[in-house]
């Protein structure tokens, strides 16, 4: 039986990282790093961030988009996307605008986060009208939102029984290809909870791709500083021992039931982006602390784990 969820100060600190990330994204969007017409609904003001932060977020967003497009190229829009620890992510609306809206889009996060996101959606016509259609209705109840093809649900990701119930309520099915997103999420779960979740997802979705973005190489001096800074904010990384070199992160996924897995640090990801993209971004701001950017990129990794032949060839250079 799953443990009953107990609220802690650390949960509050983890939730605060969503606000931080949204502010960083809004700053980068305002500076022209990428286009997002919806981020401003979720955070009203963002102080200017350091250039290396902006560039790091661009690499993260651009890399995730590259793999999302690879996934959709292979299966079309008759599929499902499940965003674990979605925060205030705007991917659903951006895909709607690109005519790549998928059959079912499911978002999960802490109930307090989803309740606030529901409130923001409800009071902003530009967000709400993309969710509803002429015949569909939008149901918001107890922090959860259900609409035709979009579900926003509050749950504790460390409680597997609750995750299963919420996914079932949202119409998740093993019959459709599934893209699973986990950006800076698994690392906050206890290792046994993360293991149970990953094993379940691998078994539940036989044709799937999992994109994981989180810290890596935390065993060196720079990693120690990162951990101390998080700890000072009341936010420890329960899954720290899995934040090793990228190759070990990929091996972890294979051991948990994923057939293929590849992982790269963000410096490698940055170098793999199209040259014209990099040139455009590098022209936006002068970068004084190039060494700091290199260190940051060496301590975050993108992992792609897949099941099913349809997605076996998903790769950084595909």
From TrEMBL:
A single Pfam family it belongs to is LCM
Query: Does S-adenosyl-L-methionine show up as a keyword for this record?
Result: yes
Transmembrane listed as a keyword: no
Enzyme nomenclature, EC number = 2.1.1.233
Q: Any idea which UniProt keywords this protein has? A: Methyltransferase, S-adenosyl-L-methionine, Transferase
Q: Which reaction does it catalyse?
A: [phosphatase 2A protein]-C-terminal L-leucine + S-adenosyl-L-methionine = [phosphatase 2A protein]-C-terminal L-leucine methyl ester + S-adenosyl-L-homocysteine
Task: Report the SUPFAM superfamilies cross-referenced here.
Answer: S-adenosyl-L-methionine-dependent methyltransferases
- Which superkingdom does the taxonomy of this entry point to? Eukaryota
UniProt lists the family membership as follows: Belongs to the methyltransferase superfamily. LCMT family.
Job description of the protein: Methylates the carboxyl group of the C-terminal leucine residue of protein phosphatase 2A catalytic subunits to form alpha-leucine ester residues.
Protein name in the entry: Leucine carboxyl methyltransferase 1
* Species of origin: Loxostege sticticalis
Q: What is the lineage of its organism?
A: Eukaryota, Metazoa, Ecdysozoa, Arthropoda, Hexapoda
């Amino acid at each position: 039986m799953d443990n009953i969820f107990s609220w802690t100060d650390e949960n509050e600190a983890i939730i605060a990282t969503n606000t931080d990330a949204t502010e960083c994204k809004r700053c980068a969007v305002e500076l022209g790093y990428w286009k997002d017409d919806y981020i401003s609904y979720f955070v009203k003001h963002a102080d200017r961030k350091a250039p290396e932060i902006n560039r790091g977020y661009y690499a993260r967003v651009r890399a995730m988009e590259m793999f999302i497009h690879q996934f959709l190229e292979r299966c079309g829009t008759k599929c499902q996307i499940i965003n674990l620890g979605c925060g205030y992510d705007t991917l659903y609306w951006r895909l709607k605008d690109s005519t790549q809206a998928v059959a079912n889009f499911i978002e999960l996060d802490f109930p307090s986060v989803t309740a606030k996101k529901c409130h923001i959606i409800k009071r902003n016509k530009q967000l709400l009208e993309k969710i509803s259609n002429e015949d569909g209705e939008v149901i918001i109840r107890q922090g959860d939102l259900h609409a035709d093809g979009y579900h926003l649900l509050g749950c504790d990701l460390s409680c597997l029984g609750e995750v299963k119930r919420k996914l079932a309520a949202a119409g998740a099915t093993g019959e459709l290809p599934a893209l699973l997103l986990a950006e800076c999420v698994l690392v906050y779960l206890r290792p046994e909870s993360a293991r149970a979740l990953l094993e379940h997802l691998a078994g539940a979705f036989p044709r799937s791709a999992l994109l994981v973005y989180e810290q890596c190489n935390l065993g060196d001096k720079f990693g120690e500083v990162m951990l101390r800074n998080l700890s000072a904010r009341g936010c420890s990384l329960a899954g720290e021992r899995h934040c090793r070199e990228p190759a070990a992160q990929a091996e972890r996924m294979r051991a948990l039931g994923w057939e293929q897995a590849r992982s790269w640090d963000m410096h490698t990801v940055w170098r793999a982006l199209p040259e014209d993209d990099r040139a455009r971004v590098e022209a936006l701001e002068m970068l004084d602390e190039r060494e700091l950017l290199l260190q940051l990129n060496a301590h975050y990794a993108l992992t792609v784990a897949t099941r099913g032949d349809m997605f076996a060839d998903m790769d950084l250079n595909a």
